[in-house]
Amino acid sequence: MSDAAVPRVSAAQAPPGPLLLAFSGGLDSSLLLHLLVEAGLGRRLRALHVNHQLQARSEDWAAFCRTRAEALGVPFEEIRVSVPADVNLEAGARAARYQALTERAAGATVITAHHRDDQAETVLLNLLRGAGVQGLAAMSEHSWLNGLPLWRPLLAFGRVQLEREARRRGLEWVEDPSNADISLRRNRLRHEILPRLAATWPGAPAILARTAGVMADAAALLDERAAEDARALAAARDRLPLEGLAALSRERQDNVLRWWLDQAGAPPPSLAVTGQIHGLLRAPADREASVTWAGHTLRRYRGDLYLLHDRDLRPLSGPLDWRQGHEPPDPGLWRLLPGEGEVTLWVPPGDVQLRPFAGGERLRRHGQHQQVSELWRVAGVPPWRRRQWPLLYQEGQLVSVPMIGVADGVDRRRCRPWQLRW
Protein backbone atom coordinates (compact mmCIF):
# COMPACT_ATOMS: atom_id res chain seq x y z
CA MET A 1 0.00 0.00 0.00
CA SER A 2 1.26 3.48 -0.92
CA ASP A 3 2.71 5.61 1.87
CA ALA A 4 0.27 8.31 0.76
CA ALA A 5 -2.71 6.16 1.76
CA VAL A 6 -4.66 7.44 4.77
CA PRO A 7 -4.98 4.82 7.54
CA ARG A 8 -8.58 3.68 7.90
CA VAL A 9 -10.40 0.73 9.45
CA SER A 10 -13.53 -0.72 7.87
CA ALA A 11 -16.21 -2.52 9.84
CA ALA A 12 -16.20 -5.09 7.02
CA GLN A 13 -12.68 -6.13 8.11
CA ALA A 14 -13.79 -6.82 11.66
CA PRO A 15 -14.53 -10.33 12.88
CA PRO A 16 -17.97 -10.90 14.42
CA GLY A 17 -18.60 -10.65 18.14
CA PRO A 18 -17.02 -8.58 20.93
CA LEU A 19 -13.67 -6.84 20.44
CA LEU A 20 -10.88 -6.13 22.94
CA LEU A 21 -8.23 -3.53 22.06
CA ALA A 22 -4.75 -3.94 23.55
CA PHE A 23 -4.37 -0.25 24.43
CA SER A 24 -0.88 0.86 25.50
CA GLY A 25 -1.55 4.57 24.97
CA GLY A 26 1.24 4.80 22.40
CA LEU A 27 0.86 6.37 18.98
CA ASP A 28 -0.31 3.23 17.18
CA SER A 29 -2.98 2.05 19.61
CA SER A 30 -4.18 5.62 20.29
CA LEU A 31 -4.85 6.17 16.60
CA LEU A 32 -6.38 2.71 16.26
CA LEU A 33 -8.82 3.42 19.09
CA HIS A 34 -10.17 6.42 17.16
CA LEU A 35 -10.29 4.51 13.87
CA LEU A 36 -12.27 1.66 15.43
CA VAL A 37 -14.82 4.02 16.94
CA GLU A 38 -15.14 5.91 13.64
CA ALA A 39 -15.76 2.59 11.87
CA GLY A 40 -18.83 2.09 14.05
CA LEU A 41 -17.26 -0.65 16.16
CA GLY A 42 -17.32 1.23 19.47
CA ARG A 43 -20.48 -0.47 20.75
CA ARG A 44 -18.80 -3.89 20.83
CA LEU A 45 -15.34 -2.62 21.80
CA ARG A 46 -13.48 -2.69 25.12
CA ALA A 47 -10.00 -1.30 25.80
CA LEU A 48 -7.53 -3.12 28.04
CA HIS A 49 -4.33 -1.49 29.29
CA VAL A 50 -1.69 -3.91 30.59
CA ASN A 51 0.42 -2.11 33.19
CA HIS A 52 3.80 -3.86 33.34
CA GLN A 53 4.89 -1.60 36.25
CA LEU A 54 8.35 -1.24 34.69
CA GLN A 55 8.49 2.56 34.30
CA ALA A 56 8.24 5.44 36.77
CA ARG A 57 5.28 6.88 34.86
CA SER A 58 3.35 3.63 34.50
CA GLU A 59 0.48 4.92 36.65
CA ASP A 60 0.26 8.16 34.63
CA TRP A 61 0.06 6.15 31.39
CA ALA A 62 -2.75 4.00 32.77
CA ALA A 63 -4.69 7.12 33.79
CA PHE A 64 -4.09 8.65 30.34
CA CYS A 65 -5.47 5.53 28.65
CA ARG A 66 -8.54 5.49 30.86
CA THR A 67 -9.29 9.14 30.07
CA ARG A 68 -8.89 8.67 26.31
CA ALA A 69 -11.01 5.51 26.15
CA GLU A 70 -13.83 6.86 28.31
CA ALA A 71 -13.89 10.11 26.31
CA LEU A 72 -14.85 7.99 23.29
CA GLY A 73 -17.38 5.95 25.25
CA VAL A 74 -15.27 2.80 25.20
CA PRO A 75 -15.29 0.66 28.39
CA PHE A 76 -11.79 0.56 29.89
CA GLU A 77 -9.93 -1.84 32.14
CA GLU A 78 -6.41 -1.80 33.54
CA ILE A 79 -4.64 -4.96 34.61
CA ARG A 80 -1.30 -5.01 36.41
CA VAL A 81 1.26 -7.68 35.69
CA SER A 82 4.77 -8.45 36.91
CA VAL A 83 7.66 -9.62 34.77
CA PRO A 84 9.88 -12.17 36.58
CA ALA A 85 13.40 -10.90 37.19
CA ASP A 86 15.00 -14.10 35.88
CA VAL A 87 13.56 -13.97 32.34
CA ASN A 88 14.35 -11.96 29.22
CA LEU A 89 12.61 -8.59 29.63
CA GLU A 90 11.15 -8.46 26.11
CA ALA A 91 9.91 -12.04 26.15
CA GLY A 92 8.69 -11.83 29.74
CA ALA A 93 6.71 -8.64 29.13
CA ARG A 94 5.15 -10.08 25.99
CA ALA A 95 4.19 -13.32 27.74
CA ALA A 96 2.65 -11.42 30.66
CA ARG A 97 0.77 -9.13 28.27
CA TYR A 98 -0.76 -11.95 26.23
CA GLN A 99 -1.60 -13.90 29.37
CA ALA A 100 -3.53 -10.88 30.64
CA LEU A 101 -5.29 -10.46 27.29
CA THR A 102 -6.21 -14.15 27.25
CA GLU A 103 -7.65 -13.96 30.76
CA ARG A 104 -9.73 -10.86 29.99
CA ALA A 105 -10.80 -11.70 26.44
CA ALA A 106 -13.90 -13.65 27.54
CA GLY A 107 -14.70 -14.72 23.98
CA ALA A 108 -13.64 -11.44 22.37
CA THR A 109 -11.23 -11.02 19.47
CA VAL A 110 -8.11 -9.19 20.65
CA ILE A 111 -7.07 -6.24 18.47
CA THR A 112 -3.44 -5.15 18.33
CA ALA A 113 -1.93 -2.10 16.60
CA HIS A 114 0.89 -3.92 14.80
CA HIS A 115 1.78 -2.20 11.53
CA ARG A 116 3.93 -2.80 8.44
CA ASP A 117 7.20 -1.74 10.10
CA ASP A 118 6.52 -4.16 12.97
CA GLN A 119 6.01 -6.83 10.32
CA ALA A 120 9.37 -6.02 8.69
CA GLU A 121 11.11 -6.17 12.08
CA THR A 122 9.51 -9.54 12.82
CA VAL A 123 10.62 -10.98 9.46
CA LEU A 124 14.22 -9.86 10.07
CA LEU A 125 14.28 -11.11 13.66
CA ASN A 126 12.91 -14.50 12.64
CA LEU A 127 15.33 -14.71 9.72
CA LEU A 128 18.25 -14.09 12.09
CA ARG A 129 16.90 -16.81 14.40
CA GLY A 130 17.01 -19.28 11.51
CA ALA A 131 13.23 -19.55 11.23
CA GLY A 132 11.54 -21.54 8.50
CA VAL A 133 8.58 -20.67 6.32
CA GLN A 134 6.17 -20.29 9.23
CA GLY A 135 8.47 -17.89 11.07
CA LEU A 136 9.09 -15.79 7.96
CA ALA A 137 5.33 -15.55 7.40
CA ALA A 138 5.44 -13.41 10.57
CA MET A 139 2.03 -11.87 11.37
CA SER A 140 -1.26 -11.99 9.48
CA GLU A 141 -4.23 -9.67 9.79
CA HIS A 142 -6.40 -12.42 11.30
CA SER A 143 -4.78 -15.21 13.29
CA TRP A 144 -4.88 -17.26 16.48
CA LEU A 145 -2.44 -17.45 19.38
CA ASN A 146 -2.94 -20.37 21.78
CA GLY A 147 -6.68 -20.29 21.19
CA LEU A 148 -6.89 -16.48 21.32
CA PRO A 149 -8.30 -14.85 18.13
CA LEU A 150 -6.27 -11.83 16.99
CA TRP A 151 -7.00 -9.00 14.56
CA ARG A 152 -4.32 -6.58 13.30
CA PRO A 153 -6.17 -4.00 11.16
CA LEU A 154 -3.14 -1.67 10.69
CA LEU A 155 -0.78 -4.25 9.20
CA ALA A 156 -0.93 -2.68 5.73
CA PHE A 157 0.18 0.77 6.96
CA GLY A 158 3.67 2.01 7.82
CA ARG A 159 4.76 3.87 10.93
CA VAL A 160 5.21 7.13 8.96
CA GLN A 161 1.62 6.96 7.72
CA LEU A 162 0.26 6.37 11.22
CA GLU A 163 2.22 9.23 12.76
CA ARG A 164 1.23 11.61 9.99
CA GLU A 165 -2.45 10.78 10.50
CA ALA A 166 -2.21 11.03 14.29
CA ARG A 167 -0.61 14.48 14.05
CA ARG A 168 -3.18 15.61 11.49
CA ARG A 169 -5.88 14.73 14.01
CA GLY A 170 -4.05 16.46 16.86
CA LEU A 171 -3.92 13.28 18.91
CA GLU A 172 -1.78 12.88 22.01
CA TRP A 173 -0.03 9.68 23.04
CA VAL A 174 2.49 8.40 25.56
CA GLU A 175 6.15 7.75 24.75
CA ASP A 176 7.67 4.72 26.44
CA PRO A 177 11.41 5.42 26.96
CA SER A 178 12.16 1.70 26.74
CA ASN A 179 11.32 1.89 23.02
CA ALA A 180 14.57 3.84 22.54
CA ASP A 181 16.72 1.28 24.38
CA ILE A 182 18.91 -0.18 21.63
CA SER A 183 20.21 -2.90 23.93
CA LEU A 184 16.90 -4.61 23.08
CA ARG A 185 17.17 -6.47 19.78
CA ARG A 186 13.93 -5.26 18.24
CA ASN A 187 14.75 -1.65 19.09
CA ARG A 188 18.19 -1.97 17.51
CA LEU A 189 16.58 -3.28 14.34
CA ARG A 190 14.04 -0.43 14.42
CA HIS A 191 16.43 2.45 15.08
CA GLU A 192 19.69 1.35 13.44
CA ILE A 193 19.43 -1.55 11.01
CA LEU A 194 16.15 -0.95 9.18
CA PRO A 195 16.93 2.76 8.51
CA ARG A 196 20.26 1.72 6.95
CA LEU A 197 18.51 -0.89 4.83
CA ALA A 198 15.93 1.66 3.71
CA ALA A 199 18.70 4.13 2.82
CA THR A 200 20.16 1.60 0.38
CA TRP A 201 16.93 -0.15 -0.64
CA PRO A 202 14.08 2.38 -0.50
CA GLY A 203 10.88 0.69 0.58
CA ALA A 204 12.73 -2.10 2.41
CA PRO A 205 10.05 -2.43 5.15
CA ALA A 206 7.32 -2.78 2.52
CA ILE A 207 9.41 -5.36 0.63
CA LEU A 208 9.99 -7.38 3.79
CA ALA A 209 6.29 -7.21 4.63
CA ARG A 210 5.50 -8.44 1.11
CA THR A 211 7.89 -11.35 1.65
CA ALA A 212 5.91 -12.23 4.77
CA GLY A 213 2.79 -12.47 2.62
CA VAL A 214 4.50 -14.82 0.16
CA MET A 215 5.75 -16.96 3.03
CA ALA A 216 2.24 -17.03 4.53
CA ASP A 217 0.92 -18.54 1.28
CA ALA A 218 3.68 -21.17 1.36
CA ALA A 219 2.98 -21.88 5.04
CA ALA A 220 -0.71 -22.40 4.27
CA LEU A 221 0.22 -25.03 1.66
CA LEU A 222 2.51 -26.80 4.13
CA ASP A 223 -0.24 -26.78 6.76
CA GLU A 224 -2.71 -28.21 4.25
CA ARG A 225 -0.33 -31.06 3.40
CA ALA A 226 0.43 -31.68 7.07
CA ALA A 227 -3.28 -31.92 7.90
CA GLU A 228 -3.72 -34.47 5.07
CA ASP A 229 -0.81 -36.55 6.38
CA ALA A 230 -2.13 -36.36 9.96
CA ARG A 231 -5.54 -37.62 8.82
CA ALA A 232 -3.91 -40.47 6.89
CA LEU A 233 -1.94 -41.39 10.01
CA ALA A 234 -5.11 -41.31 12.16
CA ALA A 235 -3.34 -38.88 14.48
CA ALA A 236 -5.07 -37.93 17.72
CA ARG A 237 -4.72 -34.70 19.69
CA ASP A 238 -1.98 -36.18 21.89
CA ARG A 239 -0.90 -39.25 19.94
CA LEU A 240 0.82 -39.94 16.60
CA PRO A 241 1.28 -43.50 15.21
CA LEU A 242 4.98 -44.12 14.59
CA GLU A 243 4.72 -46.76 11.87
CA GLY A 244 2.93 -44.46 9.45
CA LEU A 245 5.16 -41.54 10.41
CA ALA A 246 8.29 -43.56 9.65
CA ALA A 247 6.99 -44.27 6.13
CA LEU A 248 7.02 -40.55 5.27
CA SER A 249 10.03 -38.69 3.92
CA ARG A 250 12.15 -36.76 6.43
CA GLU A 251 10.69 -33.49 5.13
CA ARG A 252 7.09 -34.67 5.53
CA GLN A 253 7.88 -36.06 8.99
CA ASP A 254 9.17 -32.65 10.04
CA ASN A 255 6.17 -30.93 8.51
CA VAL A 256 3.50 -33.10 10.13
CA LEU A 257 5.31 -33.04 13.48
CA ARG A 258 5.50 -29.24 13.38
CA TRP A 259 1.81 -28.96 12.49
CA TRP A 260 0.72 -31.53 15.09
CA LEU A 261 2.68 -29.81 17.87
CA ASP A 262 1.30 -26.42 16.86
CA GLN A 263 -2.28 -27.74 16.86
CA ALA A 264 -1.72 -29.01 20.39
CA GLY A 265 -0.40 -25.62 21.55
CA ALA A 266 3.17 -26.84 22.09
CA PRO A 267 5.99 -24.35 21.40
CA PRO A 268 8.09 -25.12 18.32
CA PRO A 269 11.17 -27.19 19.21
CA SER A 270 14.64 -25.80 18.53
CA LEU A 271 16.91 -27.39 15.95
CA ALA A 272 18.71 -29.27 18.72
CA VAL A 273 15.43 -30.61 20.13
CA THR A 274 14.26 -31.51 16.61
CA GLY A 275 17.40 -33.63 16.26
CA GLN A 276 16.57 -35.37 19.54
CA ILE A 277 13.04 -36.02 18.29
CA HIS A 278 14.38 -37.78 15.19
CA GLY A 279 16.57 -39.86 17.49
CA LEU A 280 13.44 -40.71 19.46
CA LEU A 281 11.70 -41.86 16.27
CA ARG A 282 14.62 -44.21 15.53
CA ALA A 283 14.79 -45.61 19.07
CA PRO A 284 14.14 -49.37 19.50
CA ALA A 285 10.44 -50.18 19.78
CA ASP A 286 10.85 -51.67 23.26
CA ARG A 287 12.31 -48.45 24.70
CA GLU A 288 10.09 -45.87 26.41
CA ALA A 289 12.34 -43.01 25.27
CA SER A 290 11.37 -39.35 25.63
CA VAL A 291 12.38 -35.78 24.70
CA THR A 292 11.48 -32.79 26.90
CA TRP A 293 11.43 -29.04 26.10
CA ALA A 294 9.54 -25.96 27.33
CA GLY A 295 7.17 -27.81 29.64
CA HIS A 296 6.30 -30.49 27.07
CA THR A 297 7.47 -34.07 26.55
CA LEU A 298 7.34 -36.41 23.57
CA ARG A 299 7.34 -40.04 24.67
CA ARG A 300 7.23 -43.34 22.80
CA TYR A 301 4.92 -46.08 23.99
CA ARG A 302 3.80 -49.18 22.10
CA GLY A 303 4.29 -47.86 18.62
CA ASP A 304 2.85 -44.42 19.26
CA LEU A 305 4.36 -41.01 19.94
CA TYR A 306 2.61 -39.16 22.77
CA LEU A 307 2.72 -35.43 23.47
CA LEU A 308 2.56 -34.68 27.18
CA HIS A 309 2.38 -31.43 29.10
CA ASP A 310 4.03 -31.19 32.51
CA ARG A 311 0.59 -31.60 34.13
CA ASP A 312 0.18 -34.96 32.35
CA LEU A 313 3.11 -36.30 34.36
CA ARG A 314 1.80 -35.23 37.77
CA PRO A 315 0.39 -38.13 39.81
CA LEU A 316 -3.07 -38.02 41.32
CA SER A 317 -3.20 -37.25 45.02
CA GLY A 318 -6.08 -38.34 47.18
CA PRO A 319 -8.29 -39.87 48.32
CA LEU A 320 -11.19 -37.84 46.89
CA ASP A 321 -14.65 -38.34 48.35
CA TRP A 322 -17.63 -38.30 45.97
CA ARG A 323 -21.04 -38.16 47.61
CA GLN A 324 -24.08 -39.41 45.76
CA GLY A 325 -25.97 -36.58 44.05
CA HIS A 326 -22.97 -34.25 44.07
CA GLU A 327 -20.70 -33.20 41.19
CA PRO A 328 -17.61 -35.41 40.76
CA PRO A 329 -14.29 -34.22 42.20
CA ASP A 330 -12.01 -32.20 39.91
CA PRO A 331 -8.34 -32.67 40.80
CA GLY A 332 -7.16 -30.55 37.84
CA LEU A 333 -5.64 -33.54 36.02
CA TRP A 334 -8.83 -34.82 34.40
CA ARG A 335 -12.59 -34.34 34.45
CA LEU A 336 -15.44 -36.81 34.79
CA LEU A 337 -18.27 -36.13 32.35
CA PRO A 338 -21.59 -38.00 32.18
CA GLY A 339 -21.86 -40.80 29.64
CA GLU A 340 -19.60 -43.38 28.06
CA GLY A 341 -16.41 -42.35 26.27
CA GLU A 342 -13.01 -43.61 25.19
CA VAL A 343 -12.22 -44.21 28.88
CA THR A 344 -15.29 -45.01 31.00
CA LEU A 345 -15.58 -45.33 34.78
CA TRP A 346 -18.71 -47.17 35.96
CA VAL A 347 -20.02 -45.69 39.23
CA PRO A 348 -22.46 -47.64 41.44
CA PRO A 349 -25.19 -45.91 43.48
CA GLY A 350 -24.16 -44.46 46.83
CA ASP A 351 -21.16 -42.58 48.19
CA VAL A 352 -17.81 -43.56 46.70
CA GLN A 353 -14.16 -42.61 46.99
CA LEU A 354 -11.56 -42.03 44.28
CA ARG A 355 -8.03 -43.13 45.16
CA PRO A 356 -4.75 -42.92 43.24
CA PHE A 357 -3.17 -46.07 41.85
CA ALA A 358 -0.33 -47.16 44.14
CA GLY A 359 0.55 -50.55 42.68
CA GLY A 360 -0.47 -53.94 44.00
CA GLU A 361 -4.22 -53.30 43.84
CA ARG A 362 -6.37 -56.21 42.70
CA LEU A 363 -9.83 -56.24 41.14
CA ARG A 364 -11.98 -59.35 41.50
CA ARG A 365 -13.23 -60.28 38.04
CA HIS A 366 -14.52 -63.57 36.70
CA GLY A 367 -13.85 -65.22 40.03
CA GLN A 368 -10.18 -64.18 40.19
CA HIS A 369 -8.31 -61.33 41.86
CA GLN A 370 -6.41 -59.69 39.00
CA GLN A 371 -3.64 -57.11 39.27
CA VAL A 372 -4.87 -53.69 38.14
CA SER A 373 -1.41 -52.93 36.75
CA GLU A 374 -1.58 -56.04 34.53
CA LEU A 375 -5.14 -55.26 33.39
CA TRP A 376 -4.06 -51.78 32.40
CA ARG A 377 -0.89 -53.05 30.71
CA VAL A 378 -2.90 -55.47 28.57
CA ALA A 379 -5.38 -52.68 27.75
CA GLY A 380 -2.50 -50.47 26.56
CA VAL A 381 -2.84 -47.76 29.22
CA PRO A 382 0.45 -45.79 29.26
CA PRO A 383 2.38 -45.74 32.56
CA TRP A 384 1.89 -41.99 33.13
CA ARG A 385 -1.90 -42.37 32.77
CA ARG A 386 -1.92 -45.14 35.36
CA ARG A 387 -0.44 -42.72 37.91
CA GLN A 388 -3.23 -40.22 37.20
CA TRP A 389 -6.35 -42.31 36.73
CA PRO A 390 -8.54 -42.91 39.79
CA LEU A 391 -9.56 -46.23 41.27
CA LEU A 392 -13.13 -46.26 42.62
CA TYR A 393 -13.79 -47.63 46.09
CA GLN A 394 -17.00 -48.18 48.02
CA GLU A 395 -17.02 -49.17 51.68
CA GLY A 396 -13.28 -49.78 51.44
CA GLN A 397 -13.49 -52.21 48.52
CA LEU A 398 -12.20 -51.64 44.99
CA VAL A 399 -15.33 -51.76 42.84
CA SER A 400 -14.47 -50.08 39.52
CA VAL A 401 -11.42 -49.35 37.37
CA PRO A 402 -11.35 -46.98 34.35
CA MET A 403 -11.25 -48.76 30.98
CA ILE A 404 -11.55 -52.15 32.69
CA GLY A 405 -14.97 -52.36 34.35
CA VAL A 406 -16.52 -53.31 37.67
CA ALA A 407 -15.71 -55.95 40.24
CA ASP A 408 -17.63 -59.19 40.64
CA GLY A 409 -20.73 -58.57 42.72
CA VAL A 410 -21.31 -55.08 41.30
CA ASP A 411 -24.34 -54.90 39.00
CA ARG A 412 -23.17 -52.77 36.08
CA ARG A 413 -26.77 -52.27 34.99
CA ARG A 414 -27.27 -50.16 38.13
CA CYS A 415 -24.04 -48.21 37.57
CA ARG A 416 -23.84 -44.82 35.89
CA PRO A 417 -21.15 -44.34 33.21
CA TRP A 418 -18.76 -41.39 33.50
CA GLN A 419 -16.13 -40.65 30.87
CA LEU A 420 -12.65 -39.66 31.96
CA ARG A 421 -11.40 -36.67 29.95
CA TRP A 422 -8.04 -34.92 30.18
Automatic annotation (TrEMBL):
<dbReference type="InterPro" id="IPR011063">
    <property type="entry name" value="TilS/TtcA_N"/>
</dbReference>
<dbReference type="GO" id="GO:0005524">
    <property type="term" value="F:ATP binding"/>
</dbReference>
<keyword id="KW-0963">Cytoplasm</keyword>
<dbReference type="Pfam" id="PF11734">
    <property type="entry name" value="TilS_C"/>
</dbReference>
<feature type="binding site">
    <location>
        <begin position="24"/>
        <end position="29"/>
    </location>
    <ligand>
        <name>ATP</name>
    </ligand>
</feature>
<dbReference type="InterPro" id="IPR012796">
    <property type="entry name" value="Lysidine-tRNA-synth_C"/>
</dbReference>
<keyword id="KW-0547">Nucleotide-binding</keyword>
<dbReference type="GO" id="GO:0032267">
    <property type="term" value="F:tRNA(Ile)-lysidine synthase activity"/>
</dbReference>
<dbReference type="InterPro" id="IPR012795">
    <property type="entry name" value="tRNA_Ile_lys_synt_N"/>
</dbReference>
<keyword id="KW-0819">tRNA processing</keyword>
<keyword id="KW-0067">ATP-binding</keyword>
<dbReference type="Pfam" id="PF01171">
    <property type="entry name" value="ATP_bind_3"/>
</dbReference>
<dbReference type="InterPro" id="IPR015262">
    <property type="entry name" value="tRNA_Ile_lys_synt_subst-bd"/>
</dbReference>
<comment type="function">
    <text>Ligates lysine onto the cytidine present at position 34 of the AUA codon-specific tRNA(Ile) that contains the anticodon CAU, in an ATP-dependent manner. Cytidine is converted to lysidine, thus changing the amino acid specificity of the tRNA from methionine to isoleucine.</text>
</comment>
<keyword id="KW-0436">Ligase</keyword>
<dbReference type="GO" id="GO:0006400">
    <property type="term" value="P:tRNA modification"/>
</dbReference>
<dbReference type="InterPro" id="IPR012094">
    <property type="entry name" value="tRNA_Ile_lys_synt"/>
</dbReference>
<dbReference type="GO" id="GO:0005737">
    <property type="term" value="C:cytoplasm"/>
</dbReference>
<feature type="domain" description="Lysidine-tRNA(Ile) synthetase C-terminal">
    <location>
        <begin position="352"/>
        <end position="422"/>
    </location>
</feature>
<dbReference type="InterPro" id="IPR014729">
    <property type="entry name" value="Rossmann-like_a/b/a_fold"/>
</dbReference>
<comment type="similarity">
    <text>Belongs to the tRNA(Ile)-lysidine synthase family.</text>
</comment>
<protein>
    <recommendedName>
        <fullName>tRNA(Ile)-lysidine synthase</fullName>
        <ecNumber>6.3.4.19</ecNumber>
    </recommendedName>
</protein>
<dbReference type="Pfam" id="PF09179">
    <property type="entry name" value="TilS"/>
</dbReference>
